[in-house]
Amino acid sequence: MNEKFHIEQIIKKNYKSCLLRVDFNVPISDTNIILDNTRIHAVKKTIELLMNNKIKVILISHLGRPSGKKNLTFSLNKLVMEIENVLNYKVNLLELDDQQIKNKIDAINTNELILLENIRFFRDEENYSDIFSKKLSSLADFYINEAFAVSHRNHSSITGVPQYLPSYMGYKMYDEYNSVLNSNPQFKNSTAIFGGAKIDDKILILQNFIGKVETILIGGGMIKSFINSQDNNYNIAKMILNNGITRIILPDDILIKSNNTIKTKIIGDVSGDDQIVDIGPKSINKYSKIINDSNYILWNGPMGIFEVQETSIGTCKIVNSIEDNNTAYTVAGGGSTVQSIKQFGNFSNFNHVSTGGGAFMEFIENGSLPGINAIIENKLI
Ligand code: 3PG
Predict the structure, then answer these.
(1) pLDDT tens readout for residues 326-380
(2) Is the CB of 280 under 6 A from ligand 1?
(3) What is the spatial distance between Cα 212 and Cα 323, in angstroms, rounded to a whole number?
(4) How many Å is the maximal CA-CA distance in the chain?
(5) Which pLDDT belongs to residue 260?
(6) Are the C-beta atoms of residues 358 and 364 closer than 8 Å to each other?
C-alpha cells in the first residue's frame, strides 16, 4: 500500500505505543448478552500487526450514549471477556481519569491489551476539546483509526487526536474507505432501503439521498415519521415524500403490536399508539420485486424487530431478495443490518458490508468523513 496513512507504513517506524480508536458499540441484550461481535472481529488483523511488532496497544471505544456521565450500564467491562475470546489477548480495563494511568500503562506487558473505559463517560469526547484530545494523545506515540462506524462524528478521539499524533488507518478502515468510494450509483434502477430505529439521525441523511437513487423503500421505525402527524420528523418526512424526483415507497401493510398481540394492518389504519414491528406480506412482495429489478441496492436498517421470530420475516426476505439479485452492486451497513445479514444470509453474497451505520450513509453521500479527513490531512507522518 502506497498511501502514507496505511497501517503498514508503521512497520518502517520505531513506534512503541499506539492509541487505537475502535468502535465496540455492539448490540447487547437486556441480560448483557452480546448479540453481534462483528465489530470486535473487524479489528483483529490490525491488532495482530501491532502485537506482532511489540507495540503497546491502548484501545479507545464508546458504548451507547451515556451523555458525558459515568454510567455503569454503558461500561466496557461488559465486553472484556468477549474481546479476550475474539482477539485472544488478555484485556486490562483502565480508567482515563485514574491519576496513575501512565504508570499503569507502563506496567502492562506488550502481549496484553489495554482498554480505556467508555470514552463517552467524558463530556469532552462528544464536545470536541483540544485539551482532552491532547491528554489522550499523551498516552501513546501514534494513533490508528479503526472505527469507521463513528468517523462521521467530530469527537475528540476521532478528529482531535490526529491533530497531535502521527495517524493512520487500520486495515478495516482502509477497506471501508476504498470499497465505499467505489459504490457510486447510477440513478436509473438504483434503490436504497432504509429502516431501523435510530430515526432522528437518519431522516436527514435520507433527505440527502433524494436525486441520488431512483427509489427509496421505507421500513422499520422510520415508517411512523411518514404517517403520524404527531411525530417530530413528520414535516421533513412529508417533504421527502413529495420531492418529485426520487420515488419514496412506504409499505402497504405492516405488522403492529398491541396488547401483546401481533396484527397486520393496512398502513392507513395505523394509529399513533401502534408499535410497528415489521412490514406485512403485501409489502414484502412489492419490495422484493423492486429489489429484483434494481442494479444498485444500498441497504441500511432492518424492517422491524427481526430478533423476534414472529416479526423477522420482513427483514429476512429483504436479505434473501438482495442476495438473489446476482447482477446488482449491493452494499449494506449498520450494526443491526450486519446482525440480520449474519442471521438470515451471508456477507459474501454482498459486494460490500460496512461496519458503519450513520457513518456509512454519510460517506456514501459526501464521499468523505471528518475522521477520514483528519487522517488524510495529518501533518505528523
Ligand atoms: C454506530 O453504532 O452507528 C456508531 O457506533 C456511532 O454511534 P452514535 O450514533 O451513538 O454516534
Answers:
(1) 999 999 998 889 999 999 999 999 999 998 888 988 888 788 999 999 999 999 9
(2) no
(3) 22
(4) 66
(5) 87
(6) no
- Cα angle 142, 148, 151 (rounded to 5 degrees) comes to 80
How many whole angstroms from 12 Cα to the centroid of ligand 1? 33
The confidence score (pLDDT) of residue 182 equals 65
In this prediction, residue 258 carries a pLDDT of 86
Which has the higher per-residue pLDDT, 196 or 93? 93
pLDDT digits (tens, 9 = 90+) for 31-78: 999 998 989 999 999 999 999 999 999 999 999 999 999 999 999 999
Decide: 23 in ligand 1 pocket, CB within 6 A: yes
Strands 17-22 and 56-60: parallel
Indicate whether residue 150 lines ligand 1 (CB < 6 A). Answer: yes
Q: Is the CB of 65 under 6 A from ligand 1?
A: yes
Ligand 1 centroid from CA 150, angstroms: 6
62 alpha carbon – ligand 1 mean position (Å):
9
Within 8 A by CB and 6+ apart from 268, the residues are none
Are β-strands 190-194 and 215-218 bridged in parallel, bridged antiparallel, or unpaired? parallel
257 lines ligand 1 (CB under 6 A): no
- pLDDT band of residue 198 (cuts 50, 70, 90) is low
CA of 22 to the centre of ligand 1 (A): 12
Q: Coil, strand, or helix at residue 216?
A: strand
> Residue 119 — left, alpha, or beta (φ > 0 → left; ψ -120 to 50 → alpha)?
alpha
C-alpha separations of 221 from 48, 149, 228 in Å: 39, 21, 11
Query: Which of 142, 163, 159 is closest to 10 using CA atoms?
Result: 142
CB of 358 shorter than 6 A to ligand 1: yes
d(CA 142, CA 146): 13
Per-residue confidence band for 166, with pLDDT thresholds at 50, 70 and 90: very high
Nearest ligand 1 atom to alpha carbon 147: 5
Q: CA 221 to CA 348: how far, in whole Å? A: 28
